[in-house]
Each structure stands twice: as C-alpha cells, then as structure tokens.
Amino acid sequence: MTKELVAAAILILIPIAAFINIGYIERTTDYLMEQIDSASEQMLSGDTDSASETLENAYAEWQSHDRYAHIMLRHDEVVAVSEAFSDLRSELQGGDASPVLFEALRERLRGLLEMELPSFESVL
Fold this sequence. Notes:
Elements: H1 2-44, H2 48-64, H3 66-72, H4 75-93, H5 99-116, H6 120-123
Helix pairs in contact: 1-2, 1-5, 2-4, 4-5
C-alpha cells in the first residue's frame, strides 16, 4: 500500500512541478522581452548608450538564471539564447545594431517557452 501511495504522490508532483517550471520560465522570458523591447526602442530613437545599458541589464538577468536554465532547459536552446545576446551586445556596443538581431533574440526566448508548454506530442 505504501508503494502505491508513493507512486501516486510522484504522479501528482510531476505535473505540478512542470507547471511551476512553465510559470517561472514565462515570467523570466516576459521580463527579458520587455527589456529587449525597451532597448530596441531606445536604439531606434538614437539613444544607443541607454539601449546598451538596458540590454546589459537584461543579459545580467539572463545570466542570473544560468544554473536553472542549464538544468531545466535544453542545453542547445540555452546556448542559442546566450549567443543571440552576445551577437546583439557586440553590435550595440559598436554603436548600432540591426533590428534583425533584436528579433532573433526575441525568437530564441519565445522558443524556450514554446518548448516547455505541454502539447499532444510531448505527452506521447
């Protein structure tokens, strides 16, 4: 009887943990997207210094979640987001950045969340 109760508890905890993880990733990506949007607007208005600072803050936030991300998310996707940040940071520090780089970073972040959302294929 105890084995069945332990098994039932585990089966209940797994989806709860998955939804907590999804919520955490969603809050993090939403915050990062807001920062990236703000940096993009600042850059388009000609304030590259503020854009660079805002992007650096977003990157610092991303780095603060590095351990969690490498444990809970696919390694390739985490690396892809970090590389997109790096590309954009390099261009912006040079004084200008293409809107395409901002969009590439947004796409990478959206991809992180989309992969974690439950789907019919992920259950099978």
